[in-house]
Design a protein that fits this description.
The chain is of the alpha+beta class. It has a domain of 52 residues. The protein contains three helices and two strands. The protein has a two-stranded antiparallel sheet with strand order 1-2. Strand 1 and strand 2 form a beta hairpin. It is elongated, with a radius of gyration of 30 Å. The termini are far apart.
Length: 128
């Protein structure tokens, strides 16, 4: 064991540049891993804070596609919400204190040689 340590020390002593670059690379790698872990934890905490700001009594329903076959419909069938669905939920679920539909539409406007992209969000007035 002593011979191995002596040989390693001699190699590091005579190859100072390689030793310094190796140590720098190891330090850089460790710092990068620590930084990425901290960034990931911070991002996860920020996402948790954003969702917590919605409140504990908030529920968001988003239309999409079915993932499984059900009720005679194939998997991947498109689901849409209508104003009748909103009214049906409002009248038949007494635990709902407020309900409102939202509509999103993305588009672009071109003027002269410039093009602007935008998103329009439509809500009913009872959104607070």
């Amino acid at each position: 064991m002593r011979d191995i340590l002596r040989e390693s020390w001699t190699a590091m002593k005579y190859n100072r540049r390689r030793t310094a670059l190796t140590m720098l690379g190891m330090a850089w790698g460790i710092a990068t891993v620590v930084l990425l872990l901290a960034y990931g934890n911070g991002f996860a905490q920020a996402c948790a804070n954003i969702f917590a700001s919605f409140g504990t009594k908030t529920m968001i329903l988003v239309p999409g596609r079915t993932s499984m076959q059900a009720g005679g419909e194939k998997a991947g069938a498109r689901l849409r919400f209508t104003l009748e669905d909103v009214e049906l939920l409002s009248t038949n679920v007494p635990q709902i204190s407020r309900i409102t539909p939202e509509a999103y539409k993305e588009g672009s406007v071109q003027y002269d040689t410039r093009t602007f992209s935008f998103t329009v969000i439509g809500d009913y007035p009872n959104v607070s």
